[in-house]
Design goal:
CATH architecture of the largest domain: 2-Layer Sandwich
Shape: elongated
Number of helices: 5
Number of strands: 4
Mean pLDDT: 95
Structural class: alpha+beta
CATH superfamily of the largest domain: Lrp/AsnC effector binding domain/regulation of amino acid metabolism (RAM) domain
Helix content: 25-40%
Largest sheet: 4 strands, antiparallel
CATH topology of the largest domain: Alpha-Beta Plaits
Radius of gyration: 20 Å
Length: about 150
């Protein structure tokens, strides 16, 4: 496993903030030569600590003004039931995140839709149509004062 010394932690912090930063600028910010910095970034990538790079999209500019977290309880606690639910949810474009949880429910979903009317249709026609679903509880996002995905 890659050692997480001060330089590697700084590299990770900077890349989380700006994944498109030029290696020369990254090296300057953390106090390494460009070649040493590049070697470290490549090691962090090859070790799997850095899983990849992506664009972070603005849901509102995409027309998704309604965001909710939805908890799902399944009717039975079997591997087959979970796999069937996961297959059904993986094709739903509105589902941006799906987490299998411990506790009072099995799944936590992050849903983005245009508005409450489109969420209601998703709720009824997608979630409501999955045979394994026993309970659905919706928590509407009003604001996000801290969101490190952005």
């Amino acid at each position: 496993m890659t050692k997480l010394d001060r330089y590697n932690r700084e590299i990770l912090r900077e890349l989380q903030s700006d994944g498109r930063i030029a290696n020369s600028e990254l090296a300057e910010r953390i106090g390494l030569s460009p070649s040493a910095c590049l070697r470290r970034v490549q090691e962090l990538e090859s070790s799997g600590l850095i899983k990849g790079y992506r664009a972070v999209l603005n849901p509102e500019l995409l027309g998704n003004h309604f965001i909710a977290y939805v908890t799902i309880g399944l009717d039975e606690h079997s591997t087959e039931s979970q796999q069937a639910f996961e297959r059904a949810i993986n094709v739903a474009e509105e589902v941006k995140e799906c987490h299998n949880m411990t506790g009072a429910f099995e799944y936590l979903l992050r849903i983005e839709t245009h508005d409450i009317k489109s969420f209601k249709a998703f709720h009824a026609n997608v979630l409501g149509a999955i045979p394994q679903v026993r309970t659905i509880t919706t928590h509407v996002v009003m604001d996000s004062p801290k969101d490190e995905r952005c």
